[in-house]
């Protein structure tokens, strides 16, 4: 792989020991901690491009994709803010809401990860097939971007999640292959883990992929572009916690700039109890065996989140005096209705978990009237996408049962993509 000066101007350093790594490293060779990008540009500045590409200086790529330019979109809340008695509530809306110029047609902030992740692969001259496992939203976002730019991609999903695998009024290209696993999300992860090391395939990397993290970090950059100051509090529903880590890392960059304050926002990360591996993990307790059954939104269930890894969720909570908040399904249901009434747009159930966490924190006095709050609405506007474009189900290309042969699956994938086997 040739990774010269044309892949963005940054260093990759260990988030714990500070060791400098080459641009293709995915973890620290000393302590296995997450690597963090340190950009040559220390001042926050905007590029003359639309959507997420406005933040190109702080994305680990040299150029942008021209085909898609969705991005994060923040606005000052009036409805929900008044209801909760908050003077400075910023909503980061990551979904589709054309009246507010929110253009994410796959309906969640996973699209903010997919865009720089694919651009980075292109800049590396990588011809390999990207492999990822997903319970829904990630598969949608990556399939949409892959189809739009004709980048080969395999998405491995549990068959039960097939209903969430739609594209906004378009068919997927032949370059995207959907493997439906007869099992749960953990089984899908196992299958993807079996495929990724094979010749011609490459893992998308999850939390360790800096393009994904810095893509999510643009939610905070967009909010601060509006308010000109770092928020005191950041609220988000989490599964892996990647969004929380990203918000922390983006805060470090903004503090480094010097113009936006010097206090890290407190991270308030929310999960749906009792199926809340991060929430329980921080307390040293297991989740019930029945999980994820009965959850409000299964996208928040990740069995192996980066909780104790260096630079991971526990570290960023400690650094920001943050917390994990447990939210019950009935609180989330109520919060969703309230948000939709007061703000006038539909949101995904996962996002409602963050709204419920904010409500709890206002009621308990942790968040005060004058505090600056950023509420990350991680997905929404799917009703609007449906009206305008229709939701076209992708469907399964290849079925797989745990125990089936991975080599055979590889052959079927290459055949489906029209690659020579
Ligand atoms: C993935 C997802 C989350 C959780 O994101 P992480 O930061 O990866 O934990 C929250 N909400 C929605 C809608 C998601 O798709």
Task: Please tell me about this protein's structure.
The chain is of the alpha/beta class and 421 residues long. It is built from 12 helices and 18 strands. The strands form 5 sheets. Strands 4-5-16-13-14-15 form a 6-stranded mixed beta sheet, with helices on both faces. Strands 12-8-9-11-18 form a 5-stranded parallel beta sheet, with helices on both faces. Strands 2-1-3 form a 3-stranded antiparallel beta sheet, with no helix packed on it. Helix 9 crosses helix 10. The longest helix has 18 residues. The protein is globular, with a radius of gyration of 20 Å. The structure holds pyridoxal-5'-phosphate. Pyridoxal-5'-phosphate binds next to helix 6 and helix 10.
Secondary-structure map:
Layout: E1 10-14, E2 20-21, E3 35-39, E4 73-76, H1 79-84, E5 88-93, E6 96-97, E7 102-103, H2 110-123, E8 129-133, H3 137-149, E9 153-158, E10 166-168, E11 176-181, H4 185-195, E12 201-203, H5 210-227, E13 233-237, H6 242-257, E14 266-272, H7 277-282, H8 313-320, E15 323-327, H9 329-343, H10 349-363, E16 372-377, H11 382-388, E17 391-393, E18 398-400, H12 406-417
Parallel strand pairs: 5-16, 8-9, 8-12, 9-11, 11-18, 13-14, 13-16, 14-15
Antiparallel strand pairs: 1-2, 1-3, 4-5, 6-7, 10-17
Helix pairs in contact: 2-3, 2-5, 5-6, 9-10
The chain binds pyridoxal-5'-phosphate.
Residues 108, 110, 137, 237-243, 299, 348, 350-351, 378-379 line the site of pyridoxal-5'-phosphate (PLP).
């Amino acid at each position: 792989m040739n990774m010269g000066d044309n892949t963005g101007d940054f260093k990759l350093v260990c988030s714990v020991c500070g060791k400098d790594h080459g641009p293709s490293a995915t973890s620290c060779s000393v302590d296995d901690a997450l690597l963090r990008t340190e950009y040559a540009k220390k001042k926050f500045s905007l590029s003359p491009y639309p959507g997420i590409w406005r933040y190109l200086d702080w994305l680990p790529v040299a150029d942008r994709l021209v085909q898609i330019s969705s991005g994060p979109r923040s606005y000052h809340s009036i409805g929900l803010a008044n209801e909760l008695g908050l003077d400075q509530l910023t909503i980061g809306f990551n979904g589709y809401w054309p009246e507010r110029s929110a253009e994410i047609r796959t309906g969640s902030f996973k699209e903010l990860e997919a865009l720089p992740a694919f651009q980075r692969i292109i800049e590396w001259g990588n011809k390999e097939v990207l492999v990822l496992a997903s319970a829904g939203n990630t598969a949608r976002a990556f399939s949409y971007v892959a189809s739009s730019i004709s980048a080969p991609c395999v998405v491995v999903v549990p068959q039960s999640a097939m209903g969430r695998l739609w594209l906004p009024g378009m068919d997927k290209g032949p370059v995207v292959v959907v493997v439906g696993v007869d099992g749960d999300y953990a089984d899908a992860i196992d299958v993807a883990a079996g495929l990724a090391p094979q010749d011609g395939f490459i893992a998308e990397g999850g939390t360790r992929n800096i393009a994904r993290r810095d893509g999510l970090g643009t939610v905070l950059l967009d909010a601060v572009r509006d308010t000109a100051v770092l928020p005191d509090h950041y609220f988000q529903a989490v599964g892996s916690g990647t969004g929380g880590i990203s918000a922390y890392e983006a805060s470090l960059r903004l503090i480094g700039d010097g113009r936006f304050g010097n206090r890290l926002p407190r991270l308030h990360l929310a999960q749906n109890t009792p199926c809340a591996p991060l929430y329980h993990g921080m307390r040293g307790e297991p989740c019930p065996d029945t999980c994820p059954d009965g959850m409000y939104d299964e996208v928040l269930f990740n069995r192996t989140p980066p909780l104790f890894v260096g630079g991971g969720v526990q570290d960023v909570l400690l650094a920001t005096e943050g917390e994990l908040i447990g939210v019950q399904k009935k609180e989330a249901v109520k919060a969703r209705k309230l948000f939709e009434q007061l703000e006038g747009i539909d949101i995904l159930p996962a996002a409602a978990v963050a709204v419920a966490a904010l409500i709890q924190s206002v009621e308990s006095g942790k968040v005060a009237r004058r505090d600056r709050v950023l509420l990350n609405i991680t997905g929404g506007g799917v009703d609007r996408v449906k009206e305008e474009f229709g939701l076209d189900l992708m469907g399964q290309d290849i079925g797989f049962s745990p125990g089936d042969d991975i080599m055979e699956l590889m052959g079927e994938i290459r055949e489906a993509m029209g690659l020579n086997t």
